């Protein structure tokens, strides 16, 4: 009988050579035998190793001897692993062990782009803190802040209601959208009935009769289904971080990145949202810094970096800035103009109407307040 571990290991290793025609299953079993020999035939240091490390010990190992599973990258890891002081193998000092410098605070590890919702801009003092920060961080923006009244962010509706309203207002003039929205509320029986089940109960024909296109009816039903199935909820929308919220909302038909940004700013009052693709914000940044060209969306993050963590307020002032730079209608002169021939008078009236329509369209393009959920 072989008792020496080395002789036993040698005998196991020679088994495949004695039967060269056996299949790979025997070779696999041989590898397992080698592992068992290495584990159970190695002499143990019974004086130093704790009893709990014995593979057949009746006493379970202490929980402090287990290495914890890695925590999610956004979670704060405060778990420490202890090393047996009597271990015969030398290990590098663990910075998270109790013997290390205890004055160091645990570091929060998480993706830099993951922004969790903080205090909304509708809370007391948040807008004032944002303005104070933006004044100190960007001297060019300070002049724009001085020229305008501070913004007020009010969220009168629940998230589902606001999203429904944003879909109804899409690509419509303000007056036309307001008319459709009022008929929609009348069809449901009031604002308190803007609920997922109530929206699902409306047929495409019902919505078409109040001026909602079949495509928008599809958008409304898709949003209501995702709420009814539990994929979305008002509580989840409010507590979700910015990136996750954008990913979830863009899954809804008819809701794109721009709509999500406007929703987060004006319905949820998120403080640090930069609508980098918004033309009004981009033109405002161009005027603010005297740039030759309108910055691309990919350049906006770097240009507006100093506005963090209040980029939503910075974007609001860009809308105000570009609004002040747009051509204003000529004020009415309280003097009767000289008589003009009929054709010239009609031409002048036509030009004035065209200028007013153009001015109205420009204001609508650069001022998303009119089309936003929960505003107006």
Automatic annotation (TrEMBL):
One of its GO terms (cellular component) is nucleus. InterPro entries: Alkylbase_DNA_Glycosylase/TA, DNA_glycosylase, HhH-GPD_domain. Pfam families: HhH-GPD. Residues 41-107 are annotated as: Disordered. One of its GO terms (biological process) is DNA alkylation repair. Keywords: DNA damage, DNA repair. Residues 74-103 have a biased composition (Low complexity). Residues 42-51 have a biased composition (Polar residues). It comes from the Eukaryota. Residues 168-323 form the HhH-GPD domain. One of its GO terms (molecular function) is alkylated DNA binding. Belongs to the alkylbase DNA glycosidase AlkA family. This is HhH-GPD domain-containing protein. It comes from Leersia perrieri.
């Amino acid at each position: 009988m072989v008792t020496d571990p080395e002789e036993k290991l040698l005998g196991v290793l020679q088994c495949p050579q004695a039967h060269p025609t056996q299949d790979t299953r025997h070779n696999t079993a041989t590898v397992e035998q080698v592992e068992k020999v290495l584990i159970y035939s190695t002499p143990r240091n019974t004086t130093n190793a704790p009893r709990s490390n014995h593979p057949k010990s009746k006493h379970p190992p202490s929980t402090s001897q287990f290495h914890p599973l890695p925590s999610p990258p956004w979670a704060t890891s405060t778990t420490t692993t202890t090393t047996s002081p009597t271990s015969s193998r030398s290990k590098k000092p663990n910075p998270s062990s109790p013997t290390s410098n205890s004055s160091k605070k645990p570091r929060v590890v998480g993706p830099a782009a993951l922004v969790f919702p903080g205090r909304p801009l509708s809370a007391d003092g948040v807008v004032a803190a944002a303005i104070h920060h933006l004044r100190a961080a960007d001297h060019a923006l300070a002049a724009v802040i001085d020229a305008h009244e501070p913004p007020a962010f009010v969220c009168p509706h629940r998230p589902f209601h606001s999203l429904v309203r944003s879909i109804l207002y899409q690509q419509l003039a303000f007056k036309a959208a307001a008319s459709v929205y009022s008929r929609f509320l009348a069809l449901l029986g009031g604002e308190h009935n803007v609920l997922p089940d109530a929206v699902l109960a409306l047929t495409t024909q019902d919505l078409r009769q109040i001026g909602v296109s079949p495509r928008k009816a599809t958008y409304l039903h898709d949003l209501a289904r995702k709420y009814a199935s539990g994929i979305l909820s008002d509580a989840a929308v409010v507590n979700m971080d910015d990136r996750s919220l954008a990913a979830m909302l863009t899954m809804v038909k008819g809701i794109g990145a721009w709509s999500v940004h406007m929703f987060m700013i004006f319905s949820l009052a998120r403080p640090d949202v930069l609508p980098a693709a918004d033309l009004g914000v981009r033109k405002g940044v161009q005027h603010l810094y005297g740039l030759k060209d309108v910055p691309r969306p990919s350049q906006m993050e770097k240009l507006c970096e100093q506005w963090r963590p209040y980029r939503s307020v910075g974007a609001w002032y860009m809308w105000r800035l570009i609004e002040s730079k747009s051509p204003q209608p000529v004020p009415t002169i309280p003097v009767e103009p000289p008589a003009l021939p009929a054709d010239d008078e009609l031409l002048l009236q036509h030009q004035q109407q065209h200028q007013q329509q153009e001015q109205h369209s420009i204001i609508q393009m650069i001022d998303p307040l009119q089309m936003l959920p929960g505003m107006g």
